[in-house]
Amino acid sequence: MQDRLILPCLGAVLLMGCGEAPRRQQQAESPPKAMTVSVVTAANETWPLVYEATGTVRAQMSGTVAARMSGYVREVKARMGEHVREGQLLITLDARDLDVSLKRAEAARDEVRAAMPEADAGIRAAKASLDLAQATSNRMQELFQKQSISNQEFDEANARLKAAEAAQEMARTRRAQLDSRLATAEQEIRAAEVTRSYAEVSAPFEGLVVTRAVEPGNLATPGATLMTIEREGAYRLEAEVEESKVSSIKVGQAMSVALDDQRVVEAHVSEIVPAIDAASRASTVRINLPALQGLRSGMFGRARFQLGSRTLLAIPGSAVVEHGQLESVYVADGGVARMRLVTSGERNKEAVEILSGLTAGEKIVAPIPAGLSDGTPVETGR
Question: Cα 294 vs. chain centroid, distance in angstroms?
Answer without folding.
Answer: 13
